[in-house]
Amino acid sequence: MSTSGISSILTNINDAFSGKTSGIDVGATVDALMQLQRAPEVLLQNQQSAVNTRISTLGGIASDLSQLQTAVNDLKDSFGALSQKTVTSSNSSLVSATAHAAATAGTHTVIVSQLATVSSSYSDPIADPTTLAGATLTIAYGDPNNPSKTDTITLPDTIKTLQDVADAINQSADNTGVTASVVQDANGQRLALVSTSSGAAGNLTVTGDVTFHQGVEGQDALLSVDGVPVDSATNTVSGVLTGVDLQLSGADKNTVVQIGINPDTNEAATAVNNFITAYNNVMKDINTQFTSDGSGNAGPLAGDAALRTLQSQLLEIAGYSPGAGTYVNLQQLGIEMQNDGTLQMNSTVLDDVLTNHYSDFQNFFQSTDSNAFGQVASNMLLQITDPTQGTVSSDISAQQAISDSLTQQISDFEDRLAAVQQQLTDQYSKLNVLLQQYPMEIQQVSAQLSALNPNSKS
Predict the structure, then answer these.
(1) Residue range 191-209, pLDDT digits in tens
(2) What is the value of pTM for the model shown?
(3) CA torsion sign, 332 to 338 to 344 to 348?
(4) CA angle, corner 313, sides to 311 and 317, nearest 5?
(5) Could you tell me where the DSSP H helices lie in 219-346?
(6) Nearby residues of 40 by Cβ (< 8 Å), 6 or more positions away
(7) Residues ≥6 apart with Cβ < 8 Å to 38
């Protein structure tokens, strides 16, 4: 509380004492005195505000570290971005392909002599569907002379329309492999059955109380891959080439299709860029704390020793060298460190590495050796970001403990202030009563004196 505030309180008391005012404002007087009492609490609150700012800033750094850990793990993951493949086809109208991370880069030859087909059968025109009430259909699958399985479906007696027949077949518990529908042509309505399985195993032979004709014979796809004969029930061929799915679109036994499988350098470059961005975000967060603003003030963590430790740990990651292999550090890959500790990509160098030395590039990050950059960086970040023992989490815990202590001190101080405020209120309430009574007592004394000496002028 300022000197002028105390002087104002004394002036109010003197005015009341001299009769210029009727007592004092107890509430305003106590509030003014409490400002002086609260001075130490304001210091505690300012300290807590600074601590909470440090906690918030550390939380932002922790979030950026999590993004960096994700980026490093993507470089380390043997099924991640660095293992993605692109596929080319010399004739995509016949064969196209997709490749997964397990695929091996290389070129393969494919010749498609026959596509897989889905078998279908259709009935003679049926003028009166009610004649099929209670009828039986037998559906054989596969080789007509040696079927792999046979369905026998008995139609209900409630048949009225051909759609009723189709619905009954589709809903029958005895139906294991066909879909029925009604087809209209110039000759009338027909019942059509389509196998739910492609290839020779789904080939349909239908007999029963109505005559059926084969629409499409079910047959397997026939192809050769790198000269090896392949028989497939579907036109999507998987498992012949590890990690590669072939999609057959046409057949020409005289055309050789070249399928090329190559590393996806765009995905790899994106993963490297993500790593650089995530790393730089953390490093810039740290640098900001140690950089003075226009007023000469550094960040709230400028004096934080743990932040210096974190900065050193990140620089250690960026400068790590496996010590073996064609590439032994990030700079050789075109990932160059700047004076402020951030990283910058040299696109010319990286493009050359990705185009001409991809296996060495991948080996740098993903070698089975425990010294591979990806494994070491991931392990270091795992320690740094440990929720209990990590550099940032430990710092946050320490700062939170300080904040909690200040919260308790402020709470205890508030309890003491409440007692002081009550005491001051009682004291100044009593003083106010005295000050209000004092002018009346002066008047009484003056009247008594005048009565004793009538000739007195005062």
Answers:
(1) 999 999 999 999 999 999 8
(2) 0.70
(3) negative
(4) 115
(5) 265-289, 305-318
(6) 413
(7) 417
